[in-house]
Amino acid sequence: MIYHNIRSGIFISRPNRFIADVDIDGRTEICHVKNTGRCRELLIPGAKVYVNQADNPARSTKYDLVSVYKGGRLINIDSQAPNKVFLEYMQAERLIAGVTSIRAEAKYRDSRFDYYAEAEKRGIFIEIKGVTLEEDGAALFPDAPTLRGVKHLNELAACIGEGYEARVVFVIQMRGVRYFTPNRKMHPAFGEALAAAARAGVKVSAWDCDVTKDSLTIRQSVPVRYSAESDRVLS
Does the global pTM surpass 0.90? Predict the structure, then answer.
C-alpha cells in the first residue's frame, strides 16, 4: 500500500490516545494517531516520525501519524494498514491459491472476522492482527490485554468444528524480526487461546513487512513460537 503527501517530523508528546503533537518544519502540529494502542516504547519525545497530510481540508487535524523510527528501524503504526496490505497479498494469491472471492467484515456467531475467503469450494475465515511491539528481535502481540482478541481466537477454533478453515495472520509492521510470539507477560489468556486455536486446527502465521516512509508491503513469513523461551513452532 502507498501513502501520499508524506512529511517528516519529530514526535513531541501524546496528550491522549487519539492525537500527538509533532514538530513539522519547526511548527507544532496536532496529528491524528492511527493507532489507539499504547505504543509507549515507540512514541517517545524526539523520535523521528512520518505523517500523512490529509486530503480533506475540513478535518480537525491536518495530519495522520503513520510511522516512527525505533533506533534504525522504521515501524508502521497505522492500525488500518495490516488489513489493506493483507488484502493486496491475498488478491495476488500469495497466501492461498485459487481464491475465487474475498469478503470483508464476515460475521460468524457473535464475532465479525476481518475476511471470509472461498477457494476451491473451501470456506475460510481470516482474522488479521497488526503487530508493532518488538523486544530483542521478537515481535509480540498484544501490547495491552485484549478480551476481543481471545474471543476471536476461540471462535476461529469453533469454525473448524463446523467444516470451515480458519486462519489468524499476524502482520508485523516492521522488517527484520527473528520470530513472533504471543505476549504472555501482558495477557497470558491470549497466549493460551492462541495455542488452543492452533491445536484445534487454526492456521497461525506471521509475516514481516518492508516499511518505507510512504509504503508498506508484506515481505515474508517468520516463525511463530508458543513462547519466547521455546523453539516450538506453531505453524
Answer: yes
